[in-house]
Amino acid sequence: MTTQEPRRQEERVAADDWPARRDLHRRGFRLEGRLRQARASGDRFVDELVYGRLAGEPAGREAFTHVMNSVTPRKRLIAHALVTDEAGRVLLCETSFKADFELPGGIVEPGESPRLACEREMVEEMGASPGVGDVLVVDWLRPYKGWEDAIELVFASPVVAEADKARFVPDGVEILALHWLDPADLDTVMTPFGADRARSAVAALASARTTYTEGGLPVE
């Protein structure tokens, strides 16, 4: 009689138990989650990792790419656009969930193109997209207020004529209002690194060159 493989197998191990983790990797178990300080280890608590494997999934060498995809680090990717008007003012979004303003755009979903994500976010946030062009800035965003480090792309966008501004309408849920500000005034409503990133994008647009920045500033 053939024993049927369980539909799902789950194992939990301490995050610092590398022999147990390597054994699970060889057996084709994928990392599915981390429970913070959920396991006692002597006089301290350590994180507990949740691994899972479904029936029919590969094991051993055949599982290498699947397993490594689940255990190697990932960075969040954000796509914003530099939208300016004929006077050189920058379009900013006033959000409902935090005090500082942002460039239009947002988080890239898994499997989504950054350019298309930027287009999608602008349509969702303000009803229309002026278009997305070349990448102006590639910025490394440092950890901030519980937000892990991330990579942010700032795309160029066509200049918006005064008569066309009316087609951009905030959704009233995430975006409360849209503002056009001079680059010199960005510090009044943005985080310091957000303002620096936006100004780096303005400079990159003027020079027609993509700029790499960290915390919004070019690396010397």
Instruction: Give me the count of strands.
Output: 11
Overall helicity: 10-25%
Instruction: Please give the CATH architecture of the largest domain.
Output: Alpha-Beta Complex
Helical region count?
Answer: 4
Q: How many structural domains?
A: 2
Describe the structure.
It is a single chain. The protein has 220 residues and is of the alpha+beta class. The protein folds into two domains: 8-71, Aminopeptidase (3-Layer(aba) Sandwich); 76-218, Alpha-Beta Complex (Nucleoside Triphosphate Pyrophosphohydrolase). The protein has four helices and eleven strands, in the order βαββαβββαβββαββ. The protein has helices spanning 18-26, 64-71, 114-126, 192-207, and strands spanning 8-14, 30-41, 44-54, 76-82, 90-95, 105-107, 135-141, 150-156, 175-181, 211-214, 217-218. The strands form three sheets. It has a six-stranded mixed sheet with strand order 6-4-8-7-10-11, with helices on both faces. The chain is elongated.
List keywords for this structure.
three-stranded antiparallel β-sheet; Aminopeptidase; 220 residues
Question: Topology of this protein?
Answer:
Layout: E1 8-14, H1 18-26, E2 30-41, E3 44-54, H2 64-71, E4 76-82, E5 90-95, E6 105-107, H3 114-126, E7 135-141, E8 150-156, E9 175-181, H4 192-207, E10 211-214, E11 217-218
Parallel strand pairs: 4-8, 7-10
Antiparallel strand pairs: 1-3, 2-3, 4-6, 5-9, 7-8, 10-11
Compact overview of the structure:
The chain is of the alpha+beta class.
